[in-house]
Amino acid sequence: MCGGRPTPYNVNMSLADAGPTGDPHRRKAATVVSDTRRTDAEPTPKAASAGRTDRDIFRLAPTMDATVLDAIAARLEFRATDDGYVALSQAYLGRLPLSDTHRILALGCGTGVEVRALRRFAGPGTAIVGLDHSPALIETARRRTADEGLSDNVTYEIGDAHQLAYGAGAFDVVTLHTLASHADDPLRLLREAGRVVRPGGTVAIFDGDYASLTFGCPDPTLARTVEDKLMQLLVANPRVMRDMPRLLGQAGLRLVEADGVVYANIGASRFWLSAAESYGELLERSGLLPPEDVQRWRAFQTRSDQDGSFFAASNYYTYLAQGPT
Ligand SMILES: C[S@@+](CC[C@H](N)C(=O)[O-])C[C@H]1O[C@@H](n2cnc3c(N)ncnc32)[C@H](O)[C@@H]1O
C-alpha cells in the first residue's frame, strides 16, 4: 500500500445459499423520531396499539417531520451514487422482460431512484408509474426526475402500496425496491402486487436482509445494542427476505429466480460509513438509547474508517416472480 488510506474493499460476493399492522395512513401527523428531552419519546400510540415495537421511519414516512424526510431523501440519493450498491441493487433490471413491457409500477419509489433507472433501461414507449405514501418524497422524485430530463412517460402518485387504486392486471412489471422490509404487511403487499400485475407478468423484489446488517465495534454489548436500536428505528421487517419464498407462494406468485449478495465495506468505507453517520444522527435523537452510547459507536466507525480497520456488511436478495396465470 503506498501511504495514506488503505484501499477500501467493497466485497460483493455471491452467496451459495440464498435464508404487524400499525397503519400510518390513518393517523394524524406526529413526529416519531424525537429528542430524549421531549415527552413524545415513546413509540407512537398507533404503532404501539397495533402491537408493533418498530418505529421504522420509512413505514411511518407520512408522519415524519422535515428533518427526517430530508435525511431519508439524502440517504436514498446517496445510495444511488455508490457504484457497488448500484451494481447489486439494479442487476435485476437487465433481467426484466422489458421488450414486452408497456407499463411498469414501482411501489415504494421514494425519491424515484429505481424509476429513473427504469426510465433509462426501458424503451420510451413504456409507461412507468412510481408510487409512494410520502407526499414529500414524491415531490422530490418529480423534481429530480425532471431535473435529469427523465420525465417522459413517467408518472408519480401518492398512495398506499397495500391498497392500490389500479385494476387487476394493469401492469406488466411491478417492482418492490427496498419496500418489503419497511411495509406494514409484506404478504398483503405481495398479494396486491400480484393482483395488479397481468397474468404471467413479473413482480421483482429487491431488498436488504437487514437482520444480517452488522458493524465492527470492539464493545460487543454496545455493538448489539446499537444494531438492535437501528433496526427498531429503520427496518420493520428485517428478516422478510428470508421469508420471501414462502410469502410469494402464499401470495399466489411463482418464484422464477433469486440471488443473494453480501455488500461489505472492509478497511475503509463510503456506503456503510455514510449510513452510520446519517442514521446514527437520527438514532441519537430518537430516545431509543442514551445519545452518548450512539456518539461512542459513531466515533468508533469514523476512526476505524480513518485508520483502515472499518468493517460493515449486510446481505441483499433479489427475487423475480411471475404473476398468477
Ligand atoms: C427504503 S425506501 C426505498 C425507496 C426507493 N425504492 C429506493 O430504493 O430508493 C422505502 C420507501 O417505501 C415507502 N413506503 C413504505 N411503506 C409504504 C406503503 N405502505 N405504501 C407506499 N410506500 C411506502 C417509503 O415512504 C419509502 O420511500
What's the Cα radius of gyration? Answer: 19 Å
CATH class: Alpha Beta
Largest sheet report: 8 strands, mixed
CATH superfamily: Vaccinia Virus protein VP39
Number of strands: 8
Q: Write out the distinct hetero groups bound to the structure.
A: S-adenosylmethionine
Q: How large a portion of the residues is in β-strands, by DSSP E?
A: 15-25%
Estimate the global geometry from the Cα principal axes. Answer: globular
**Mean of residue pLDDT values:** 87
N- and C-termini, Cα separation:
56 Å
- Spans of at least 5 consecutive residues whose pLDDT stays below 50 are 1-49
Protein structure class: alpha/beta
Task: Give the SSE layout.
Blueprint: E1 9-14, H1 45-49, H2 66-79, H3 83-89, E2 103-107, H4 113-121, E3 127-132, H5 135-147, E4 154-158, E5 171-177, H6 186-196, E6 197-215, H7 220-234, H8 240-250, E7 254-267, H9 271-286, H10 291-306, E8 310-322
Parallel strand pairs: 2-3, 2-5, 3-4, 5-6
Antiparallel strand pairs: 1-7, 6-8, 7-8
Helix pairs in contact: 2-9, 6-8, 7-9, 9-10
The chain binds S-adenosylmethionine.
Structure explained in plain terms:
This protein has 325 residues and is an alpha/beta fold. It has one domain: Vaccinia Virus protein VP39 (Rossmann fold, 3-Layer(aba) Sandwich), CATH 3.40.50.150. The protein has helices at residues 45-49, 66-79, 83-89, 113-121, 135-147, 186-196, 220-234, 240-250, 271-286, 291-306, and strands at 9-14, 103-107, 127-132, 154-158, 171-177, 197-215, 254-267, 310-322. An 8-stranded mixed β-sheet has the order 1-7-8-6-5-2-3-4, sandwiched between helices. The structure holds S-adenosylmethionine (SAM). S-adenosylmethionine binds next to helix 4.
